[in-house]
Structure formats: C-alpha cells, structure tokens
Recover the amino acids of this structure.
C-alpha cells in the first residue's frame, strides 16, 4: 500500500531549532538561514513535481544521488550530510532522522546500500554538490525503501532515548534539514498492510512505571491515518485503570515503535495487568492484547508519584472558617439587635417623662 500524500510532508525538510523538541519558541523570530539543501533529481525520477528523490531503480545498478548544499550566510560553516533510514518514532509517526532502529522484516535498508556520511566546509555564500552512491541488490527488493539525506551542523546535540536510539533528535541552537529518498524497483506494486504486536512490557522513565506495546509494520510500504485506542485492565478486578489514544499516526516501511501508555492517576496493587490495543488505518482494523506484571517495587514507585501529585485536602479548614464567620455574624446580629432594643426602651422612657412634665405644667 502506497500513500504518496505523506511524502511531500517529509520532502519539505525537517526543521529543528532551539531547546527541546516540541517546546514553544520564545519569540516569533525567523529561523536563521544557515544553509539550504536542494536535490538534483536524476532522469529516473518518477515524479518530476516532487521536491525529493522518488526513484525507480534497477536491481544490481548503482544509483547516484546528488544534493546541492549552499551557505547563504556571511560565516563559514562546516556541515555533515548523513544518510538515514525512515523509521517510526515512539510518538507513532514516521520520521527521517538519525536512528539505530532496524526491523528484521526489512530486505534491505537505505543506509546499508548507501555510502557513508560526508562532511563539507562552505565559505560565505558558497555552494557545493555532495554525491552519494547507492548500490541496489542484485535481486532487487519488494515494495519501497525509504530514507533521507540529513544535513546538520556536526556540533548539534543529539539526545538519545533510553533504549539507545535517536527516535527523538534534538538540536541546541542549530538548524537541520532532511531530503527524503524513496526507492522502488517496481513502482506499481501494492501491499496489504501487515501489523504485528511484538510484545508488551513496562519501562520506568523518570522512575514512573509506564506500560508499552511494541508494534511492528511488516509491510515494505509507508502507511498513515493510523489511530490507536489503548486500555490497561487490572486482571484481578477486571477494572479499566488507564487509557491512551493516538490520532493520525504513520509508520515507515518495515519499522517498529513502542506505544507508551501511562498507568493512570490512582494507586495500584502489584499483580498482572492486560494492555489492549484497537488499531485502525482506513478500513483496516487490528486488535492486540498482551499481559504484563507490575512488581511491588514498581507499584511503590507508581504510588509514591501519585501521592506526591495529590493535593492536601483543605476542605475542612474552609468549613471551620465558614462556621466561625457564620458564628461571628450571628453574634454580631444578636448584639446589634439587643443594642437597638435597648435604645428603643430608652426612647420610650424619655417620651413618658416628657409627657408627665407637660401634665404637671
């Protein structure tokens, strides 16, 4: 199954600037024009309107890929151009970034077939053409192989995930861009998407246990419009303790990702739990289920985080304050009423005395 509508999003390039990935910019300032990368499309380009490499390749042939990199700034810049594979990040989206992720279902990968990274130095307002050679296997390959040419400053900081890959690639005050590369031996091939649950488990980022399900795409094709509805059930009670949803995700060909599900905001007990997934893409539907165990140590850590997040119950203090103020108002009203009653009695006595004096007069 081929979804060409996803390619322009990737071909437009990946811009990563400032701080942490996903953080809001401090201002609306424009990204500095550190460099620009433009693919020089060869004759075997399938779509001449695409701004990325969309190539029909021949088994056993060597495909030449040329990328023009220019430096429009007034400063000399040293850049790296790195071939990367298309992978799927744990966010549930296909990405073209440096990563060590591979899946055993792949016949081959873009980085296996392509020559290594190239470092170039560009003087102010200078441009250079970077050339890569991709050796297509003699037997060819089914479907499509997706990758990219990732251009970045070699001093950029790469933040790796806990399992050692760069599904989250972060740059500190740098600029990066990727040009997608789509290779096909038979462009008219179509495939029925095959997903598989590789297993479920628990990991502990920041000491807070989180359930995860590893989902594999065994198909040599990119697909999108992926929605996931996940539920965590407690086996001993049958109660649902947590949910998580993904909307409009995508997966790269022959790739995997770990879909993470938080364990909710209530205290739990040690024992077995079940993670259930309902996955859809277009008219296709998959239902996966797997069991995992939460140990006493993991439960203690989860419950301690929940306890620290709980706010103290101050309602009784507010109730006491309300009762105290109400009592003050009642006492005040009583004293004020008593004082007015006394004043009225004094006025009556004064009037009686004045009336007696008038009679004697």
């Amino acid at each position: 199954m081929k979804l060409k509508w996803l390619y322009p999003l990737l071909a437009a390039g990946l811009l990563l600037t400032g701080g942490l990935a996903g953080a809001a910019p401090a201002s609306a300032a424009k990204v500095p024009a550190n460099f620009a990368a433009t693919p020089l499309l060869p004759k075997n380009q399938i779509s001449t309107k695409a701004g990325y490499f969309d190539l029909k390749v021949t088994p056993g042939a060597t495909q030449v890929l040329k990328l023009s990199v220019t430096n429009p700034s007034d400063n000399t810049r040293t850049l790296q151009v790195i071939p990367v594979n298309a992978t799927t990040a744990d966010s549930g989206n296909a990405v073209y970034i440096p990563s060590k992720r591979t899946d055993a279902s792949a016949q081959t990968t873009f980085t296996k077939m392509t020559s290594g990274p190239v470092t170039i130095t560009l003087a102010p307002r200078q441009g250079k053409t970077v050339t890569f050679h991709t050796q297509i296997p003699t037997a060819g390959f089914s479907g499509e192989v997706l990758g990219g040419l990732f251009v970045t400053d070699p001093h950029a900081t790469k933040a790796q995930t806990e399992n050692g890959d760069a599904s989250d690639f972060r740059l500190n005050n740098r600029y990066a861009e990727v040009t997608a590369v789509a290779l096909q031996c038979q462009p008219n091939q179509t495939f029925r998407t095959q997903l598989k649950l590789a297993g479920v488990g628990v990991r502990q980022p920041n000491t807070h246990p989180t359930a995860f399900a590893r989902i594999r795409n065994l198909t040599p094709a990119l697909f999108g419009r992926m929605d996931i509805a996940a539920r965590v059930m407690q086996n001993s009670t049958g109660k649902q303790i947590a949910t998580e949803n993904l909307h409009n995700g995508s997966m790269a060909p022959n790739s995997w990702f770990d879909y993470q599900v938080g364990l909710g905001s209530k205290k739990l007990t040690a024992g077995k739990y079940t993670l259930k997934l309902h996955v859809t893409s277009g008219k296709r539907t998959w239902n996966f289920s797997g069991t995992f165990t939460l140990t006493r140590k993991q439960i203690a850590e989860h419950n301690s985080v929940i306890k620290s997040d709980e706010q103290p119950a101050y309602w009784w203090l507010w109730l006491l304050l309300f009762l105290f103020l109400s009592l003050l108002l009642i006492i005040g009203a009583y004293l004020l009423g008593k004082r007015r009653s006394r004043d009225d009695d004094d006025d009556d006595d004064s009037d009686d005395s004045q009336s007696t004096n008038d009679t004697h007069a």
Notes: Confidence is low (pLDDT under 50) at residues 1-32, 159-164. Residues 90 and 257 are 5 Å apart (CA to CA).
